[in-house]
Design goal:
3 domains; single chain; binds zinc ion; five-stranded mixed β-sheet; D-Maltodextrin-Binding Protein, domain 2; 28% helix; Alpha-Beta Plaits; 16 strands; binds phosphoribosyl ATP; alpha+beta; 300 residues
Amino acid sequence: MTDKPARIKIAIQKSGRLTEQSLDLLQRCGLKYSRGPDQLIAYGENMPVDVLLVRDDDIPGLVRDDVCDLGIAGMNIVEERRLHFLEQDPVEPFRIVRTLDYGHCRLAFAYPDGSAVASVADLRNRRIATSYPSIVRDYLKRHDIPATVVEFSGAVEIAPSLGRADAICDLVSTGATLAANKLREGETILESRAVILQTPVAVPPEKIEWINRLLQRVEGVMQVRESKYIMMHAPKSALAKIAALLPGTEAPTVLPLDGLDDRVAVHVVCRENVFWETLESLKSIGATSVLVVPVEKMLA
Ligand code: PRT
Ligand code: ZN
């Protein structure tokens, strides 16, 4: 018998677009780990949390099979694998417990420049190349479009020029890859970000504390990243409008300004990112000296 808490395993991408930010997230949650070069497991030194470094495609399966308690992967991979697993067994294979703020991309159709196939409506009885066959088939079925899905494991964008497909459905971020391959972006069928998956089985009591702690810390890290402290001078009469422009804001601190009766200093914590458009709108209702400052830590 041992009193040690059971160790939690979290699977993340070993080497790819999500690796750096996933490791950074875990570090911000307080995890210190040791990892040798090419090691597949990084052992947590100060928390009973070990990190499995694997290909992103394997992460949903590892979580479904309860080999890992948690996993981080792109929604594109997660949804593709989910639909695939559901074909074999109609039980939800895992739970998505948090959407993260990195790995943004979209799964979209794209059509060759100058082709007669230029929108989803033209896809009837055509061939679509993709690495996401389950998502694409599901979309076509839901929209009642009979078409052939041609599976490619990579380099999908060259399928039309090879004569293998009339259109593609692939991940797009900036659109540069499509443009370089003379393809025009069409309809988006999935907006994707990295997400945290949790195993579908009930969490054993010896793991509950640390799984909850980790997920709560992720919540804290996300909240801080999305939060901004905003300071400005504004007309007293504009306070309601300012609150409406800054979503997720708690009651603002309003301070008098020396020698000015109609203007005040306003300080607010805004729990969403603040864009230039918002600052321009604040200015248009009379705000001046607007400062937006990042938040380091927050205890709600
Ligand atoms: O080896 P492993 O299997 O783990 O990695 P991988 O090669 O399958 O995945 P990787 O590292 O390329 O991507 C990991 C995850 O990052 C994806 O599953 C997405 O969730 C997310 N992501 C975000 C992207 C992109 N942006 C992206 N732009 N994944 C791929 N791309 C590719 C896309 O497939 C296309 O080839 O980039 C190209 C398009 O980019 P733009 O900027 O030219 O539009
Ligand atoms: Zn992959």
